Amino acid sequence: MNEEYLLHHTANTSIEIEIRNALGAGSDGISVEMDEMWSFCHDKTQQVWLWWAIDHETNTPLAYVFGTREHKYLDELLKLLEPYSIKTIYAYNNYAYKDKISEECLVSGKKNTQQIESDHLTLRTHIKRLARKTICFSKNKEIHMAVIGTFINLYFFGRVFDYSTIL
What we know:
Elements: E1 3-9, E2 14-19, E3 30-40, E4 47-55, E5 61-67, H1 71-80, E6 86-91, H2 95-100, E7 106-108, H3 114-126, H4 141-157
Parallel strand pairs: 1-5, 3-6, 6-7
Antiparallel strand pairs: 1-2, 3-4, 4-5
Protein backbone atom coordinates (compact mmCIF):
# COMPACT_ATOMS: atom_id res chain seq x y z
CA MET A 1 0.00 0.00 0.00
CA ASN A 2 1.41 3.38 -1.00
CA GLU A 3 0.29 6.22 1.21
CA GLU A 4 1.56 9.47 2.68
CA TYR A 5 2.37 9.46 6.38
CA LEU A 6 3.54 12.12 8.82
CA LEU A 7 6.98 10.85 9.68
CA HIS A 8 8.99 13.64 11.28
CA HIS A 9 7.78 15.99 13.94
CA THR A 10 9.74 18.24 16.27
CA ALA A 11 8.47 20.30 19.16
CA ASN A 12 7.97 23.37 16.93
CA THR A 13 7.53 22.19 13.35
CA SER A 14 6.26 19.25 11.40
CA ILE A 15 7.35 18.04 7.98
CA GLU A 16 5.20 15.72 5.92
CA ILE A 17 7.22 13.16 3.99
CA GLU A 18 5.87 10.70 1.44
CA ILE A 19 7.17 7.21 2.03
CA ARG A 20 6.44 4.08 0.08
CA ASN A 21 4.95 2.04 2.86
CA ALA A 22 5.92 -1.62 3.08
CA LEU A 23 4.03 -2.24 6.30
CA GLY A 24 2.32 -5.57 6.54
CA ALA A 25 -0.88 -4.19 8.10
CA GLY A 26 -3.76 -6.56 7.73
CA SER A 27 -7.36 -5.69 8.41
CA ASP A 28 -6.68 -6.08 12.14
CA GLY A 29 -4.02 -3.37 12.14
CA ILE A 30 -0.34 -3.32 13.00
CA SER A 31 1.69 -3.91 16.14
CA VAL A 32 3.92 -1.04 17.22
CA GLU A 33 6.92 -0.76 19.54
CA MET A 34 7.26 2.57 21.35
CA ASP A 35 10.12 3.88 23.45
CA GLU A 36 12.00 7.02 24.34
CA MET A 37 15.74 7.72 24.21
CA TRP A 38 17.63 10.29 26.26
CA SER A 39 20.30 12.62 24.91
CA PHE A 40 21.44 16.17 25.66
CA CYS A 41 22.62 19.43 24.11
CA HIS A 42 25.59 21.36 25.49
CA ASP A 43 25.38 19.79 28.96
CA LYS A 44 23.34 17.15 30.75
CA THR A 45 20.93 19.70 32.22
CA GLN A 46 19.57 20.38 28.70
CA GLN A 47 17.99 17.02 27.97
CA VAL A 48 16.43 16.06 24.65
CA TRP A 49 14.21 12.99 24.46
CA LEU A 50 13.44 11.13 21.25
CA TRP A 51 9.98 9.54 21.52
CA TRP A 52 9.41 7.17 18.64
CA ALA A 53 7.43 4.24 17.34
CA ILE A 54 8.40 1.46 14.95
CA ASP A 55 6.42 -1.27 13.22
CA HIS A 56 6.92 -4.45 15.27
CA GLU A 57 7.00 -6.70 12.18
CA THR A 58 9.16 -4.67 9.76
CA ASN A 59 11.22 -2.53 12.17
CA THR A 60 10.23 0.52 10.10
CA PRO A 61 10.05 3.81 12.02
CA LEU A 62 6.51 5.19 11.85
CA ALA A 63 6.83 8.49 13.70
CA TYR A 64 9.09 10.33 16.12
CA VAL A 65 8.93 13.40 18.31
CA PHE A 66 11.66 15.38 20.06
CA GLY A 67 10.98 16.98 23.41
CA THR A 68 11.39 16.41 27.11
CA ARG A 69 10.18 13.50 29.18
CA GLU A 70 6.81 15.19 29.68
CA HIS A 71 3.68 13.26 28.75
CA LYS A 72 2.64 15.90 26.19
CA TYR A 73 5.28 14.55 23.79
CA LEU A 74 3.76 11.09 24.03
CA ASP A 75 0.45 12.76 23.15
CA GLU A 76 2.12 14.28 20.06
CA LEU A 77 3.53 10.89 19.07
CA LEU A 78 0.14 9.22 19.48
CA LYS A 79 -1.42 11.95 17.32
CA LEU A 80 1.15 11.24 14.58
CA LEU A 81 0.24 7.55 14.74
CA GLU A 82 -3.49 8.17 14.16
CA PRO A 83 -3.31 7.40 10.37
CA TYR A 84 -2.15 3.87 11.22
CA SER A 85 -4.53 1.13 12.25
CA ILE A 86 -2.77 0.05 15.46
CA LYS A 87 -3.95 -3.05 17.28
CA THR A 88 -1.12 -3.54 19.80
CA ILE A 89 1.46 -1.21 21.34
CA TYR A 90 4.51 -2.74 22.97
CA ALA A 91 6.27 -0.43 25.41
CA TYR A 92 8.55 -0.65 28.38
CA ASN A 93 7.21 0.11 31.87
CA ASN A 94 7.11 3.92 31.59
CA TYR A 95 4.05 5.14 33.48
CA ALA A 96 3.29 7.61 30.67
CA TYR A 97 2.24 4.76 28.39
CA LYS A 98 -0.03 3.29 31.06
CA ASP A 99 -1.69 6.69 31.55
CA LYS A 100 -2.23 7.46 27.85
CA ILE A 101 -2.87 4.08 26.19
CA SER A 102 -5.76 1.76 26.92
CA GLU A 103 -4.99 -1.53 28.68
CA GLU A 104 -6.47 -3.52 25.78
CA CYS A 105 -3.84 -2.18 23.36
CA LEU A 106 -0.79 -1.90 25.64
CA VAL A 107 1.64 -4.72 26.36
CA SER A 108 4.34 -3.65 28.84
CA GLY A 109 7.74 -5.21 29.34
CA LYS A 110 11.14 -5.71 27.74
CA LYS A 111 10.28 -8.92 25.90
CA ASN A 112 8.60 -7.24 22.91
CA THR A 113 10.66 -4.04 22.73
CA GLN A 114 13.96 -5.59 21.70
CA GLN A 115 13.87 -4.21 18.14
CA ILE A 116 13.44 -0.59 19.19
CA GLU A 117 16.14 -1.00 21.86
CA SER A 118 18.39 -2.34 19.10
CA ASP A 119 17.57 0.78 17.06
CA HIS A 120 18.68 2.90 20.04
CA LEU A 121 22.01 1.11 19.89
CA THR A 122 22.22 1.75 16.14
CA LEU A 123 21.64 5.47 16.70
CA ARG A 124 24.18 5.65 19.53
CA THR A 125 26.76 3.71 17.48
CA HIS A 126 26.47 5.79 14.31
CA ILE A 127 25.84 9.23 15.82
CA LYS A 128 28.77 9.97 18.10
CA ARG A 129 26.95 12.82 19.87
CA LEU A 130 24.50 10.22 21.25
CA ALA A 131 27.18 8.00 22.82
CA ARG A 132 26.93 8.17 26.59
CA LYS A 133 30.46 9.07 27.68
CA THR A 134 31.99 11.09 24.88
CA ILE A 135 33.56 14.47 24.30
CA CYS A 136 31.40 14.93 21.20
CA PHE A 137 28.14 16.71 21.87
CA SER A 138 25.67 19.12 20.31
CA LYS A 139 25.60 22.76 21.34
CA ASN A 140 22.45 23.64 19.42
CA LYS A 141 19.15 21.82 20.01
CA GLU A 142 17.86 22.33 16.45
CA ILE A 143 21.06 20.93 14.94
CA HIS A 144 20.92 18.00 17.39
CA MET A 145 17.38 17.12 16.31
CA ALA A 146 18.23 17.63 12.62
CA VAL A 147 21.19 15.24 12.80
CA ILE A 148 19.09 12.50 14.41
CA GLY A 149 16.17 13.04 12.02
CA THR A 150 18.46 13.03 8.99
CA PHE A 151 20.14 9.83 10.14
CA ILE A 152 16.77 8.10 10.62
CA ASN A 153 15.74 9.08 7.10
CA LEU A 154 19.08 8.00 5.58
CA TYR A 155 19.55 4.77 7.51
CA PHE A 156 16.01 3.40 7.59
CA PHE A 157 14.67 4.77 4.28
CA GLY A 158 17.80 5.33 2.19
CA ARG A 159 16.79 8.93 1.57
CA VAL A 160 19.46 11.19 0.12
CA PHE A 161 19.13 14.91 0.71
CA ASP A 162 20.24 17.67 -1.64
CA TYR A 163 22.25 19.78 0.80
CA SER A 164 23.16 22.33 -1.89
CA THR A 165 19.77 23.96 -1.38
CA ILE A 166 20.58 24.85 2.24
CA LEU A 167 24.27 25.72 1.92
